[in-house]
Amino acid sequence: MPFDLEEVLASRRVERLDLHRSYLNPQLVRVLQTLGFDRTYVRGEGAYLVDDEGGRTLDFLSGFGVFALGRSHPVVKAALHQALDLDLPNLVQLDAAVLPGVLAQALVERAHPGIERVVFTNSGAESVEVAIKFARRATRRDRIVYCDHAFHGLTTGALALNGGAEFRAGFGPLLPGCDRVPFGDADALARALAPGDVAAVVIEPIQGKGVYEAPVEYWREVEALCRANGTLFVADEIQTGMGRTGRFFCHDHFGVRPDIVTLSKALSGGYVPVGAVLASARVVDSVFSSMDRAVVHSSTFSRNQLAMVAGLATLAVFDDEDIVERARVAGERLVAALAPLVERHELLAEVRGRGLMVGLEFAAPTTHGRTRFRLMELARKGMFSQLIVVPLYHRHRILTQVAADNVNIVKLLPPLIIGDEEIDTFVAALDDVLRDAGRSSALLVEVGRTMAKGTLAGRRHGRRPGAVGGTSG
Ligand SMILES: Cc1ncc(COP(=O)(O)O)c(C=O)c1O
To answer: Check: CATH 3.40.640.10 for 75-320?
Structure first.
């Protein structure tokens, strides 16, 4: 029988949890069941996921930030259909195909002077690996400096730059010569760079794990310290780039010019794995320094045609639909609409972020509900944020994520195409959840019931309940 995608989806759908339990990651299934996050999605449309019962879930997670254009954008979809119908000669490898060149040029044109070359990759972590490798070669130095709370991916090199102990534990020894400094502390950075042996400072313009920002002056100092010490300044824009914060690159807000910029996530509209490293000719040519070294760095799929097509179509949509400006305006509206909730609900301590990368930080109330909050935190640090994320999903059909382990921060990464309707829906839903969270234990009971149901479902498969932590994106 010829392969029929629709038939596979229809006939195997009921088995999906069992398949994941048996062949992929049974612990993730436990987490999903415990939270009750086990809807069966059948379609993605713009800012919404549609499930098998026809229900629509508002997606304020966007696949960890890849769906800047929303899901199933017609222009990107049509470009991919066209690419398939053209039977493009993909991955010839020993050729110079046109599309990688056109996409590289389009990316360089969006960057500041001094960014001249592009190295394509398959993911965010691979982009960070390239940045480490190319910085070491260009400077002939080994050491890399990164920040507390940093997240640059989970391959071993990127993991060596990860500020979260929970991700690193059990995978060492990691890349030697990687030193951590506090984010936002220019004096600490000055001390780390002073010996003159640091190849690169790798840093997120806004830290994804917690949505932490440093003052603008800090960025000027980072740039100046890097220049003064012969160190390359690497801006990891994998999450913050591509318009997420209301500028195409987040570092443009700070008026700095990093030597290397890493991209991935939104670059292919969410369709095809892709990443890109933008750098000067000096950096890239230090690696590809002779004909002998022309393939000293490569990756089989990195210039694959579907990724290039999706990337070009995505950039075209960015221009045609003014996506970056829309993200800026929608972000301002979202933060402004959330501000009164900080006044109204003691539990919501702060709303922060830029564009459509927004963090909601929760804190123990000083009056009513303090014991409830404390008890949840005793059960597991950062547990309170689940009291927000779970009812947002179940009561209001909105998908959000806990920003990091051990903190009560919920991160919002909606598609950049959201409008007033989605913003109003989210703000009203959060208001409702916070009202109940502050008022009585009823919400706790509701969430507890959801988790108990999920746990029972897990037990039917012979497993005990486990802790539920932050996600990786
Ligand atoms: C700033 C940053 N760098 C790197 C990565 C790793 O990207 P990937 O998951 O594609 O490897 C992420 C992923 O969330 C990220 O946010």
So the answer is: yes
Tens place of pLDDT per residue across the chain (473 aa): 899 999 999 999 999 999 999 999 999 999 999 999 989 999 999 999 999 999 999 999 999 999 999 999 999 999 999 999 999 999 999 999 999 999 999 999 999 999 999 999 999 999 999 999 999 999 999 999 999 999 999 999 999 999 999 999 999 999 999 999 999 999 999 999 999 999 999 999 999 999 999 999 999 999 999 999 999 999 999 999 999 999 999 999 999 999 999 999 999 999 999 999 999 999 999 999 999 999 999 999 999 999 999 999 999 999 999 999 999 999 999 999 999 999 999 999 999 999 999 999 999 888 777 777 777 777 778 888 999 999 999 999 999 999 988 889 999 999 999 999 999 999 999 999 999 987 767 777 777 777 777 666 666 664 443 444 455 56
CA 266 to centroid of ligand 1, rounded, Å: 11
CATH topology of domain 5-69+323-459: Aspartate Aminotransferase, domain 1 (3.90.1150)
Name the residue at shortest CA distance from atom 14 of ligand 1: 473
Q: DSSP per residue over 118-159, as a string?
A: EEEESSHHHHHHHHHHHHHHHHT--EEEEETT----SSHHHH
- DSSP per-residue letters across 268-319: GTTSS--EEEEE-HHHHHHHS-SGGGTTSS--TTTT-HHHHHHHHHHHHHHH
**Where in the sequence numbering do the catalytic residues fall?**
151, 236, 265
For ligand 1, is residue 64 a contact (CB within 6 Å)? yes
